[in-house]
Amino acid sequence: MELKARRISGSSFSAEDKLEVTFNSDSQDISVMTHTIELVSGVNVTHGGGAPANEYLHYKSIERDANADGIIDYSDIEMSLVQVEKGTSVIKVVCGVITQAEVDALDNDGFAGTLEPTIYKTGEITLQWSDDNFV
Known about the structure:
By secondary structure, this protein is mainly beta. It is built from two helices and nine strands, in the order E-E-E-E-E-H-E-E-H-E-E.
């Protein structure tokens, strides 16, 4: 399984950027997937409309994204990012995955506990927000 991200909009002269995030999996039985960002260095960055780094969000919903069988395709999302002030930020996109097999195993054991998601991370992504100089 592999998590990758790339910038699809934004520039060094704007606080806003948008990423395309893809998740390649051998398995299609993902029950839940949540995403966040990890701030490696630099100025703070929010995602998904204002959530801070390390706060997980559901970027897909059953009402909007499920097919007729109730299955959600988690292979790709778009993630909006905003740098909170000018400067350079280095981030990683992070996702937490719980498979349907893990949910079924828990249910079959008759245990009403919680599942720990498996964590995946992208490589480092550098964001820059600065001013251009008059010449």
